[in-house]
Amino acid sequence: MAKPLANRSIVITGSGRGIGAEVAKLVGSLGANVVVNDPGVNLDGSGGDAGPAQSVANEIIAAGGSAVANLDSIATEEGGENLIRQCLDTWGRVDGVVHVAGILRDRMIFNMAESEWDEVIAVHLTGFFNVVKPASIIMRQQRYGRIVGFSSSSGLMGNAGQGNYGAAKAGIAGGVRCLARDLGRYGITSNGIAPTAGTRMTQSIPEAAQQLRAAAPTAAPKAEDVEPQYPAASFVAPMVAYLMTDQAWNVNGKIFHVAGGQVSLALEETAAASIHKASMWTVDELRALVPSRLMSGVINPAPPPPTLDLPGRPVAASA
Ligand SMILES: NC(=O)c1ccc[n+]([C@@H]2O[C@H](COP(=O)([O-])OP(=O)(O)OC[C@H]3O[C@@H](n4cnc5c(N)ncnc54)[C@H](O)[C@@H]3O)[C@@H](O)[C@H]2O)c1
Hints:
There is one protein chain. By secondary structure, the chain is an alpha/beta fold. The protein is built from ten helices and eight strands. The protein has an eight-stranded mixed β-sheet, sandwiched between helices. The longest helix is centred in the middle third of the chain and has 29 residues, at 114-142. The protein is globular, with a radius of gyration of 22 Å. Bound molecules: nicotinamide-adenine-dinucleotide. Nicotinamide-adenine-dinucleotide is lined by residues 13-14, 16-20, 37-41, 43, 45, 52, 73-75, 100-103, 123, 150, 152, 195-197, 199-202, 233.
């Protein structure tokens, strides 16, 4: 088999389980030296277990590859630096960083504790900074690097009960696009993946929340319209591995949805409709124009029920 990642050294956060483990095993089989990072925490970030990271590293080695385990939490600056330093000390290079690590603390915003907000932001969004900052210093010196952040449809489109997670995942999408601008000139690419896969994370979604999310009106095609709702996590790995290859040198600042056999390039934020005038709009002008010129045909993802007596809503014509 061709080894397109031979002599590349790649760090993968959260790769003891789920999607990260599949990415680690695939890039290992394609010749990369892999740092399998995972403190083995529970889905909510509590606890810890050295087993998952070590067993994925052992699996890569048993298959003829090269890997080491790392148990640092990337939620701290020190953990991120240790992780990147381990890759550099072990193999002398850091060619790729894939930030897959994640936890969930789902809660409606009116019930959410500040700690639930902070801990989710710390692992996903600050964790992204904690690994890409030290890695980018080395990649810039190498004039070569590959960065992949994990976003989510929750951050790109929205999901009930995930204000903390969606904010972090939108932040990663924004970060990936900005890093592309910071680092492209040094031969470094920065891209994002918004996956759909059957893992303990998706298994944890309560039936009621799944129904609420499925019922939310949306204009965007849902992955489950074309694929089983939660395809195997291994389906996500090839696109990540592709982004690590030399051939992907000119793919930069993009987000890809990956769900089973479907890989989609996400739309970038552009104006869907505009109104313009040379001077400042008045509120009365906006009240008159926004509904017809900006919002016509636009779907509210969570409309209030018809039974709610809402000021401003036109009264439906009676039959
Ligand atoms: N599964 C999906 O359908 C789906 C959808 C959208 C986004 N995602 C994202 O994909 C990524 C992988 O999710 P998954 O479904 O494989 O979840 P998972 O729970 O199976 O794996 C996540 C791993 O991250 C590790 N982790 C948690 N905190 C960490 C920390 N501080 N430092 C290092 N590792 C840590 C966990 O121990 C776990 O092994 C996550 O970022 C998730 O938000 C997944």
